[in-house]
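Rather than argue in generalities, we have chosen a single entry, letters for residues, whole numbers for local backbone shapes, without further comment.
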Amino acid sequence: MKTRAAVLREMGLPRPYAVTRPLRIEELELAPPGPGEMLVRISAAGLCHSDLSVIEGARPRPMPMVLGHEAAGIVEALGPGAAGFTEGDHVVFSFVPMCGDCLPCAEGRPALCENGAAANTAGTLLGGARRWCDAPDGEMNHHLGVSAFAERTVVSARSAVKIDPALPPEIAALFGCAVMTGVGAVLNTARVPAGASVVVFGLGGVGLAAVLGAVVAGAHPVVAVDPLPEKRALALTLGASHAVRSGDHVVADVRAITGGGADFVFESVGSEVVLAQAYAATRRGGTTIATGLPHPSKQFSVPAVSLVAEERSVRGSYMGSAVPRRDVPRFVALFQAGKLPVDRLLTHRVTLEEVNEGFDRLADGQAVRQVIVMT
């Protein structure tokens, strides 16, 4: 079938994207779902910094590619063996497909699925196929097994999680990345206990979701750090107890608030410089958690003796260490109970044609989460 999609053919084009238009809306041929796959009509898709990193070239991917990975949609057709789903199901996507067979999956750590990571790197679906057809300049690649910036997409059934159909699609989409990553980092990776002190560096969608997760966990104080006053103000309305402007004095400011450093410090910027600040703002015996994705060439160093003499821990958190089929429904339930107001992260609704302008806003820090609402 024919479907419109936002295609990236060249990374690293200069800004403003409203002028250079790295994402072009094209009509592509989409093949039917194969074994274990399904056709999904996209209802809403979020604009995430991970997508922006591909556009900028900081996160290299095979080109050309249909971008987008944070989304919600409705199942329209099933390939053979797509167990657990029926036509009409409402789903949210997981941007790491879960094979269920590799060692990380067997250990209950599907965010680290080896076969899913290999497929994502290659630009294919979990089974190794590509379902985009008729690309004039070679194979059209899938983004993280999802390719959500399209009217319809084909995904592995292991890239999807069923959700309550009553959930508004523009809110549902947020659970596929921002919420799963940020809240998951707090509840799954760090397992923050009630009363622990928490600091979050970087208040994009993931960072603000981490603030929400810290509030749900009962952390105190919860310190939100960002250069932009609008984001710091939003963090306070979401339950942060303090908001601090990032800069040269941020570590001293955070240590003053937390009495010498926080128990758990989260870095969601994707900057090795900010990660070093986050480590410096962590107390003796505390844990620094990195959720942002820096450029692959960047290095991070710490005083080696502090790891031993101060019993420090540095941890990475990918996809919030989530088990999507467990965590997405429970995070949705927290939202529906009024305990996780993720709707406050949604700042803009855009059309597919406005996707480049949306990424300009994201790069300028003028948005938290923007969602393409499909008509």
